[in-house]
Write a structure and sequence with these properties.
Number of strands: 11
Distance between the termini: 33 Å
CATH superfamily: Acetylglutamate kinase-like
Helix content: 25-40%
Number of helices: 8
Order of helices and strands: EHEHHEEHEHEEEEHHEHE
Strand order of the largest sheet: 4-3-5-2-1-6-10-11-9
Radius of gyration: 17 Å
Strand content: 15-25%
CATH architecture: 3-Layer(aba) Sandwich
Structural class: alpha/beta
CATH class: Alpha Beta
Largest sheet: 9 strands, mixed
Length: 241
């Protein structure tokens, strides 16, 4: 097992989409995929890294989509936040089966299933080696889980956000549709905004930029990718000044 002194970051935020938990299905949760992601998290936790997580809710309900279909935007966004709680509980269950103590911390009070968000208590959980999964976004409509992840990463004094996606970094165009797409090794926050590179939404990028918080974009589908990057290997794109 590598020593914590060998890893690049000591405390990180892992942001994944709800869709990342669908596997090959078109909706909902795919338990083997949830288990595989939990094993990736465990491998990094075993390095002594303190881990925060934010999981989107798009596999269950997407607020913007509901709003586009005529639902009132605020209501649709709250439904999306509840979807993130369901994903967080599924991930907590998978992690605890692997022996990792985990806390789901919700921005919307629901004491029976999750702790309320209290910053100092969450920091203490991290210091005790627990994985903290932040659910229900920021607790406010009109903010995405990308923004929630960036906000919590700043509040928890994380050293980087790891954005797990289906591709191994940031490309100038969609690599699935364009074989000639070029991958960036490094890109600035302003380039992401100006070129609409779609790493995260604009408010999340601006919040990361204003607080000099690097964003590491990597493939969650590559086994051992998360651990490899923390140990200084692997393929990824880093967004920073």
């Amino acid at each position: 097992m590598a020593d914590a002194a060998e890893v690049t970051y000591k405390r990180v935020m892992l942001k994944i989409s709800g869709e990342a938990l669908m596997g090959d299905t078109t909706f909902g949760l795919h338990p083997p995929t949830v288990q595989r992601v939990a094993e990736e998290v465990k491998s990094v936790h075993d390095l002594g890294v303190e881990i925060c997580m934010v999981i989107g809710g798009g596999n269950i309900f997407r607020g913007l989509q509901g709003s586009a279909q005529g639902m009132e935007r605020t209501t649709a966004d709250y439904m999306g936040m509840l979807a993130t709680v369901m994903n967080a509980l599924a991930m907590q269950s998978a992690l605890e089966q692997l022996g990792i103590h985990t806390r789901v911390i919700s921005a919307i009070t629901m004491n029976e299933v999750a702790e309320p968000y209290i910053r100092r208590r969450a920091v203490r959980h991290l210091e005790k080696g627990r994985v903290c999964i932040f659910a229900a976004g920021t607790g406010n409509p009109y903010f995405t889980t990308d923004t929630a992840a960036t906000l919590r990463a700043n509040e928890m004094a994380c050293q980087a956000i790891f954005k797990g996606t289906k591709v191994d970094g940031v490309y100038d165009k969609d690599p699935a549709k364009n074989p000639d797409a070029k991958r960036y090794d490094k890109v600035t926050y302003d380039e992401v905004l100006q070129k609409h590179l779609g790493v995260m939404d604009a408010s999340a990028i601006a919040l990361a930029r204003d607080n000099h918080l690097p964003i590491v974009v990597f493939s969650l589908d590559e086994p051992g990718g998360f651990r490899g990057i923390l140990a200084g290997n692997g393929t990824y794109t880093i967004v920073q000044d």
